[in-house]
Every structure is written in C-alpha cells, then in structure tokens.
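Render this sequence as a predicted structure.
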Amino acid sequence: MSERRTDGRTAAVVVVGASAGGVEALKQLVRGLPAGYGSAVLIVLHVPPAGTSVLPQILERAGRLPSAHARDGEPLEPGRIYVAPPDFHLTVEADTIRVVDGPKENGVRPAIDALFRTAAHAYGERVAGVILSGSLADGSAGLAAVKEAGGLTVVQNPAEASYAAMPSSAIDLVGPDHVLPVAAIAALLAGVATPGGAEPVAHAVPAFDSGPTPDEERAS
C-alpha cells in the first residue's frame, strides 16, 4: 500500500482508536514515544462498561509518558496520555478535555469517532489520527473528519493487526496518509510532535447533549 509524505506537518494532539487486539498494539505504540513528547495523546479503547480499566497503568509501564484516565474539564498538556474511562466518551473542546455520558455511537461508549471528530474540529491540521487493531468500523468516520480538516491520518497495517476489520475499514473509507506497522507509526509520531504544543484552531461544538460526567455522577 502506498504511503504519503507528512509534508512537514506537526501534530499538537494525537488521537488513537483501538478495539479487539488493541492493548498490545497500544503498548508497542507508546513504547516508541520519547520522554518529554511534544504532543498530547488521547486514546479510546473499547472496553466493557462495567468494571475497572487498568489501561493507563499498563501504558505507563510500557512507555515513558505519564498516563491516566481523562477527567472532565482538565486542560490538554503535551507529553501526557489521556485514556477514555469505561462507559464515557472522551472528546476535545478547544484546549479542554470533556468526558461525557453521551449516546452510544456505533453501538459503543466510548466511541473512537466522537474523539476524532471533536479533535479534528478543535485542532484542524494540527491533529494526527491513528487507527489500530479492532473489529467492526468505529473510527472510520472520525478518521475521515481528521483528513477533511487537514490532519495526518495513519492506520495500522491490517496484515499485522490481531483484528484487521477496523484498520481495513478505515483504509477503504479514508485512504489514509500512511498504512504502517505499529513500530513505524510510533517513529512517525515521534517526528511530527509539536514542541511545546499548539493552540487549538477552533472551539468545537459539543459532540452530544451534555450528560453527567464521572465526577458529577460520584457527587450525586
């Protein structure tokens, strides 16, 4: 499959979507990002709505960057990994993280499309979208939004992915800039990070009617 040049683009925000088989791919991806990485990294992995997710701890052990479940209202900071908590969408509104209980998309919450769509609106060409291993097609429409906004679009090579359906769908719908094995994706992302981050280009409209955040649920 052909690869396109990055044309000198940089990414203030990197958004990553994964599903089945995605944990190993995510571990390999973050392992390749350097300490002090210049972009914020936001991750949606499809997980069961009940129970406790330990993905942030897994990723922090695997790589060099601090990782935690995203909290509603916190500012985006470069060099940090933000993971969608179970049963809540992770979205971006200007330079702020929103964690919301919106309706399911593609039958899932958190949904990859919601994160990619809002990041594309907020950061335009300064966003990089990455689709990794998974089943079904969540993330394809979101990656298309990233491409339309001028951002960098990257998909894991389906031949390498544990589950090829999600990468294959993204390739068919979007025609991404790069189709690469995960190790090469990490190297690419290391090269497009924005030193010191960057200002968002627009204020995104809310992705859904606002529902309760995790903090609000605990307070109720």
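Summary. The longest helix spans residues 112-123. The helical segments are 22-31, 55-62, 112-123, 140-148, 165-174, 182-192, 214-219.
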